[in-house]
C-alpha cells in the first residue's frame, strides 16, 4: 500500500515512515526540504525498504495537486505541524493564519485531494496527528490549540461522509513528545514565563501527567499502524489519546 506522510522528515513523521516501511508498505515522505527528504529516503532504502520522496508545502494548492496525482494514498497521515508561542495580543496575524493553514486547512485540502482515489478503490485510511491540545488548552498557544481542536471536528465530518466507502479517519492525540518542535517550545515557554527550561518541563509540560514522561515517537507509529489494521476496520471518527493519564483528571 502507498502510505503518504506529511512532515515526514521530523521526529514523529519519520518514526511513522520507518514503522510502516518495516511492514512492507511503500512510504512517501512528504515535506518541505528536498535535501533532507532525499537523505531520509536513502536511509530507508539502505534498510531494504520501499521509500519515495515528495516536496510538499501543505499550504500550496498546486503542490497538493501534484503530490496526490503522483502518489495516490491508500493511507494518508496528516502530520505536518508548526508552533508559535505568544499571548494573543502579541501574536503576529500572519503567523496565526499560517498555523491554521498548516495544521487544519492543509490536512483538509490534502484529504480532499486523496479521497476520490480512496473512494474509487473502496479503501482508505486517514490518520491525523493531533495533540493533547486538541482536547485541552494551554496559555500562549491560541492558534495551535484552535487548529488541533478543529482537526477533531473535521475528522468526524469526513468519517460521516465516507462511512459507506470503507474509509476511516481518526486522530491520534499525544501529550508532549520529545521532538525538535517541543524542544523549541521549551525554550519559548521558558522565555515567556521567565523560568528555566527544566522548570518548563517539570511544572508546565509534565506536571498534569500522572506518568510524568514524554510520549515516545514509536508509540505514535504503532498506534497509527493499529488504526490501519483489520482489527480497527470499524474504528472511525475516533480520538486516540496517548497522554499518560492527563485527561483523566
UniProtKB/TrEMBL annotation:
Gene3D superfamilies: NAD(P)-binding Rossmann-like Domain. PROSITE patterns: ADH_SHORT. Keywords: Oxidoreductase. GO terms for molecular function: 3-hydroxybutyrate dehydrogenase activity. Belongs to the short-chain dehydrogenases/reductases (SDR) family. PANTHER family: 3-OXOACYL-(ACYL-CARRIER-PROTEIN) REDUCTASE, 3-OXOACYL-[ACYL-CARRIER-PROTEIN] REDUCTASE FABG. This is 3-hydroxybutyrate dehydrogenase. It comes from Alkalimonas collagenimarina. The lineage of its organism: Bacteria, Pseudomonadati, Pseudomonadota, Gammaproteobacteria, Alkalimonas.
Amino acid at each position: 500500500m502507498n502510505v503518504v506522510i506529511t512532515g515526514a522528515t521530523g521526529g514523529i513523521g519519520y518514526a511513522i515512515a520507518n514503522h510502516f516501511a518495516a511492514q512492507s508498505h511503500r512510504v512517501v515522505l512528504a515535506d518541505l526540504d528536498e535535501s533532507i527528504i532525499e537523505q531520509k529516503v536513502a536511509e530507508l532504502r539502505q534498510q531494504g525498504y520501499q521509500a519515495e520522496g515528495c516536496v510538499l508545502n501543505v499550504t500550496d494548492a498546486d503542490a497538493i495537486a501534484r503530490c496526490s496525482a503522483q502518489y495516490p494514498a491508500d493511507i494518508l497521515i496528516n502530520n505536518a505541524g508548526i508552533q508559535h508561542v505568544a499571548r494573543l495580543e502579541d501574536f503576529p496575524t500572519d503567523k496565526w493564519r499560517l498555523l491554521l493553514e498548516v495544521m487544519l486547512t492543509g490536512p483538509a485540502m490534502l484529504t480532499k485531494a486523496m479521497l476520490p482515489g480512496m473512494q474509487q478503490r473502496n479503501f482508505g485510511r486517514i490518520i491525523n496527528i493531533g495533540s493533547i491540545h486538541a482536547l485541552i488548552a494551554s496559555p500562549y498557544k491560541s492558534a495551535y490549540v484552535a487548529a488541533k481542536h478543529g482537526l477533531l471536528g473535521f475528522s468526524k465530518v469526513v468519517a460521516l461522509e465516507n462511512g459507506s466507502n470503507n474509509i476511516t479517519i481518526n486522530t491520534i492525540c499525544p501529550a508532549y513528545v520529545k521532538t525538535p518542535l517541543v524542544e523549541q517550545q521549551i525554550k519559548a515557554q521558558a522565555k515567556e514565563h521567565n523560568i528555566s527550561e527544566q522548570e518548563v518541563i517539570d511544572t508546565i509540560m509534565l506536571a498534569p501527567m500522572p506518568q510524568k514522561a514524554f510520549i515516545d515517537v514509536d508509540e505514535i507509529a504503532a498506534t497509527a499502524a493499529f488504526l490501519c489494521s483489520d482489527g480497527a476496520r470499524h474504528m472511525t471518527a475516533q480520538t486516540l489519546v496517548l497522554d499518560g493519564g492527563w485527561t483523566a483528571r
